[in-house]
Amino acid sequence: MRGGRRRSQERTIGDIARVTVADVQGQSEGQPALDSDGTAPVVVSVRDVEKRFTIRKDNSLKERVVTLGRAGRRHSEDFWALRGVSIDISAGSTVGLLGPNGSGKSTLLKILGGILEPTTGTVRRRGRLAALIELGAGMHPDLTGRENVFLNAAVLGIPREEVERRFDAILQFSGIGDFIDTQVKFYSSGMYVRLAFAVAINTDPDILLVDEVLAVGDEQFQKKCLDKIREFQQQGRTIILVSHALGQVQDLCDTALVLSDGEVKFYGSARDAVQNFRDILEGRRVAEAEAAAPEENPTPGEVTAVSLTSGGAPITGLLAPGATIEVTVSVANETRLDRWNCGFLIENSVGNLVYGTDTLRLGSTLPPLDTTATVQFIVPKVVLGNGKHFVHAFLSDERGEHLAIQRDAATFALEDEWRYLGSHRFAATATLLGEPDSELSVPAFAETSE
Questions:
Q1: Which residues of the chain have pLDDT under 50?
Q2: What is the pLDDT of residues 13-52, one digit of tens each?
């Protein structure tokens, strides 16, 4: 009975709390224990979850009273925010939730955190959970930051002695300073986020849920948050985050879930999820363009072919650092383009842009595009970092707006070299000052004979 009352209390508190902690099973011990088969245990299991909201069309209390009973059904509409969602999340993984606005991401995150109950289906959690869901929720505006820290702790069932022990760490991470004794109704949105995140990470969670709230903080605080998330990853904690920063998702997440209209469209690697999400956005853009101008083709431009070579030969294996690559892009447009532009982008394996150029940036003057054209770019002595890289090619107008883009049109990988870290390789020297013969140098790449 005691455990049942506690779980029921947490769900009630979850409706108003920004940071929710739930001890369902297990303790926070850093690296997760493996199951008997050697795999990481499932800490969040979602089965056939659906969520329905009722949208009322009454404009006043009088209309609500008049339309009570069966007549009220004509003045309301059911909206299904989630439909048939089923996923398993293993301990120690970082999962991104992607989807267009209104796709159900925040609703699913609230259900995972126990803030909302699903209309149908089940959600099972294992471990202590902390959630940063909504800006300002769970804080009383008339209380000071200090009082809200202790209020949140009391709501979450954390002993006062433990909060006092961690208070200095919470204050230091938040960067609130002397404003900790100011009523939070005078806080900026960034101060809200900093204090709430500082409280959440100091509850020692096994599972951390993060909505788009990190976008509110400044650059320095975002870096602190990302560093803390990476620290949690190294400790084997599970993180589930909602973000529209696709590069950040590819950088942080092992896997990602794509939602659209409340349904799961993809669940797999973060890079493939980002590509699926971009396809959904492009489909919506085309549909909106067709609806706005049915007589016009919404996609008149096309990247028809992309080839990647080195020294004129196809790249079949690992590319040696310092090699030359040629990117050949063929484009077409249904109507004549007097001014147009063609280019390519290179991203690394975590989705970060490491290089890009186009004919406009190179100062090339192109003749009008009547039907088709082919442009070749030559990049001598590539000094990008280790690992696999992805090439995207595009056709754009004179303003640089894309008329067509082909993502992942080609790939190449560079040989690993232990002497380099990061996205590029640069020549460097190291000298012990006062010792003229101590200079050590590392070239950006090994010189090869042409």
A1: 1-30, 448-450
A2: 333 333 333 344 333 444 555 565 567 889 999 999 999 9
Residue 327 to residue 349: CA distance in whole angstroms = 19
- Tell me how crowded residue 324 is: count the other CB atoms within 10 A of its CB: 16
Q: How does pLDDT run across 282-310, given as a tens digit for each residue?
A: 888 878 877 777 776 777 889 999 999 99
Q: For residue 92, is it left (φ>0), alpha (ψ between -120 and 50) or beta? A: left
Residue 420: CB partners within 8 Å, gap ≥ 6?
A: 385, 386
Q: Hey, what are 284's tokens?
A: 């919506």
Nearest to 414 by CA among 328, 323, 314: 323
Could you state, in order of their start, the residue ranges of all structural domains in the chain?
Answer: 2-278, 299-450
Q: Check: CATH 2.70.50.60 for 299-450? A: yes
Instruction: Locate 73 and state its tokens.
Output: 């059904």
Chosen CATH of 2-278 out of 3.40.50.300, 3.30.390.80, 3.40.50.970, 3.40.50.10740: 3.40.50.300
